[in-house]
Design a protein that fits this description.
This protein has 449 residues and is of the alpha/beta class. Strands 1-10-9-8-11-3-2 form a seven-stranded mixed sheet, sandwiched between helices. Strands 6-5-4-7 form a four-stranded parallel sheet, sandwiched between helices. Helix 6 crosses helix 17, helix 9 packs parallel to helix 10 and helix 12 packs across helix 14. Bound molecules: pyridoxal-5'-phosphate (PLP). Pyridoxal-5'-phosphate binds next to helix 9 and helix 14.
Length: 449
């Protein structure tokens, strides 16, 4: 037997006895796991292989493109072409959560509204758009058409559209990544194909087609859509494949959120330090989005920020990969879990090995929640705060309950009960801003069933 074969042969009985938590995962129970092997930023950073300079470069690139974005997408004009979301308090939702779980929450509850990011209405407006811009800049500079000191709004000129038309971009997606990459690529003039998994919503496919994107549909899940996209791109040297599972560029696009959030906290006079810890709850699919944001947060706030990933009970791929140490060598399907969830963007059976290996020491914990709970929270948030999100974006909502009521974890971190009163819990709301009214009505109707 070759080494490769040995690797791919999993002994599930042995795994479940070595890792009893897997039995609960298989039973689709809501679980949490706070990783006892986390380290300080200093110890964990070398494994990421990226640092401040990389984030800074990404930030500067986004600034170079800001004049272009402000003109190409008028909704970004108010922020001068910087794609950023609001940070808000959700005190009414906090009371609803306390009722929902019959448990108190001592800290402050806030929300980061990536759901309402311009251009594509989800967290993917960070990484996806950034990677397309990076690629476009590289091509244009290499062709001698652009230099970094130019006013990038010249990219709106027909000459550039004709130039980019010779190149194509491909991506596999459950929906939102396709939206951000499709819309951005088409706007620049690229020929773009989005390979959509079966769970992708019809309205997202329609919207992309309206933008002139070639949408390829699959009857299988995300993994298959990605593989097909990759294969197609390999046959065409002018086609650039955006690899959601392995891309450092995407990851860095997300990471810029850290310094931006730090500024927002300063403006709103929210203190983050050892006595005022920050807990951030990030919905996780393949891992690039939450992983990149978590990296940026760690670089901005150091050991005072604690990042926790949230996944559907039917798609707990990152928890599975990190908990077993097998990363992308195991999928939820290997355990007989079906990877069927209404949470767009989170229906991923196999996590990014790159993100898991890079970030596992810097991520405090993981939990799962059912689709039913996401729907219920969706309706509760709508009623309490008048904010509408898509189901996946609610995954971070129960995080504060998991943290504040886990004495083992808090003791291990040395966070006293009294410190919790000065903690901030931040729910990263990852999508929903562009959901059509009719779809939203259906989401809301579902939660009252
Ligand atoms: C993509 C997505 C996520 C998770 O991002 P990954 O990079 O896949 O982990 C979370 N929420 C929404 C709404 C998304 O579209």
């Amino acid at each position: 037997m070759t080494e490769l074969n040995q690797k791919s042969e999993l002994n599930i009985d042995k795994l479940t006895s070595d890792f009893p938590l897997l039995k609960q995962l298989i039973a689709l129970e809501e679980v949490n796991w706070f990783n006892p092997n986390i380290t300080t930023l200093e110890q964990g950073l070398p494994y990421v292989g990226m640092g401040d300079k990389d984030i800074h470069d990404a930030s500067l690139r986004l600034k170079r493109f800001a004049p272009y974005l402000a003109k190409a997408f008028p909704e970004t004009q108010v922020a001068n072409g910087i794609i950023e979301s609001e940070l808000i308090d959700i005190p009414l939702m906090k009371s609803v959560l306390e009722d929902h779980y019959q448990l108190p929450i001592k800290g402050r509850l806030m929300m980061k509204k990536d759901s309402h990011l311009p251009i594509s209405g989800s967290i993917k407006a960070r990484g996806g758009i950034y990677e397309v811009l990076t690629h476009a800049e590289k091509l244009a500079i290499e062709a001698g058409l652009l230099s970094e000191s130019d006013d990038y709004s010249k990219l709106l000129e027909p000459e550039f559209r004709d130039f980019f038309k010779q190149y194509s971009i491909a991506v596999g997606s459950t929906g939102n990544l396709g939206m951000s990459i499709g819309i951005m690529s088409a706007k620049l003039g690229f020929t773009v194909s989005v390979h959509m998994s079966a769970d992708a919503r019809a309205w997202k496919k329609n919207k992309l087609r309206e933008h002139g994107v070639n949408v390829v549909e699959y009857e299988q899940d995300y993994g298959v859509a990605v593989e097909q996209g990759r294969k197609e791109a390999e046959q065409d040297p002018r086609c650039f494949f955006i690899d959601d599972e392995n891309s450092q560029t995407l990851f860095l696009g997300y990471s810029v959120a850290g310094e931006r959030l730090k500024q927002q906290f300063e403006q709103q006079q929210v203190v983050v330090d050892k006595e005022h810890p920050l807990f951030v709850y990030l919905p996780c699919g393949v891992g690039g989005g939450p992983g990149g944001v978590a990296f940026g947060l760690k670089m901005a706030f150091g050991d005072d920020v604690h990042c926790i990933f949230a996944e559907p009970t039917h798609s707990p791929c990152m928890l599975l990969g990190v908990h077993t140490g097998l990363h992308d060598e195991i999928s939820v399907q290997d355990l007989g879990i079906d990877n069927l969830t209404a949470a767009d963007g989170l229906a991923v059976g196999r996590a990014s090995g790159f993100v898991g290996r890079a970030m596992e020491r810097l991520l405090d914990g993981y939990y799962t929640l059912t689709d039913e709970r996401m729907y219920q929270l969706l309706s509760e948030l709508d009623q309490a705060e008048g904010i509408q999100l898509e189901p996946s974006a609610l995954a971070g909502m129960p995080g504060a309950i998991h943290v504040e009521h886990n004495s083992e974890y808090l003791e291990r971190l040395g966070i006293a009960e009294s410190t919790l009163a000065s903690a901030t819990h931040l729910v990263w709301a990852t999508g929903g801003g562009m959901v059509p009214e009719q779809e939203m009505a259906e989401y809301l109707a579902k939660s009252s069933l």
